[in-house]
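Researcher: I'd like a structural prediction for the single chain below. Treat it as a standalone chain; there are no partners to consider.
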Amino acid sequence: MRFQMGGAFMRVAIAVVMFSGGSAQAVRVPRIELLRVVRVTGARVLLSDLLPEDVPGSLRARATEISLGAAPQLGNTRTLERSVLISHISDSQDILSEIAVPDRIVISRESRAITVSEVLDAIRKALEHSSVHAAETLQPQDILLQSQVFVSPGDAGLQVMRMDLDVGLRRARFLLWPSRDPSVLPFFATARLDGDLPLAPVHFGAELDRSMNRPGISSALKAAATQEILVAPGERATLLLRSDTLRMFADVVPLEKGTLGQQVRVRMLDTGKIFNAQVDGRAHLEMKF
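Model: Treating it as a single chain, here is the predicted structure.
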């Protein structure tokens, strides 16, 4: 009798354990694993950027409110370690319970190259606004970009900040800035112009100065400029030779690398003469005489 009762008790206990285990398995929800390689479009990385496409809308909405810091600069990557990511979301234990975090996540930033077409449109608008009639005859084949400039997808808000002229060659150099991607440095484009041309450099309004002085923009540009190599040895560049009354352009080859504002040695392509010039843009230098 004692044996039979013990056996009955064991059968009931096993049944309870099996039932309990089955219930636990029934309510357990698999964790959603974050992506290991991610491309973002904005200036900041959000937790929602790391989620697969087919996640519940409620989870994505909550993850959109969690920032994981700045996105990498265009052309670079950022590696996010598991411990760092968890520290960012440690206050959201409900989200942590729903996701699986890999050891590391590599983040890059979506980018595209500035096109000749949008440079042409920006130059035309600036010239028309300043009543420079050369805008009427300017064509895409008249525009020369010395190097590719990459910005985030979408409208870059390209604005012309300044125009320098070589009237004798009917050649102009334009300083442009992608105002909607302020971490990207201003860059130069050159163009051949017809029609009546102004003799002095043209600055395109105080509105651009106010845009450049928005909080965080000037410091971001300065930091980027001090790090980025804008001219490199052996790579062809354009030199602006200027005085109080004359501006001329010349093709040169830098003999050393340089960042914005640095003095570097350059060699004239036509004469072979070597002298110092100041870096003032991507593949562009300036010298006063």
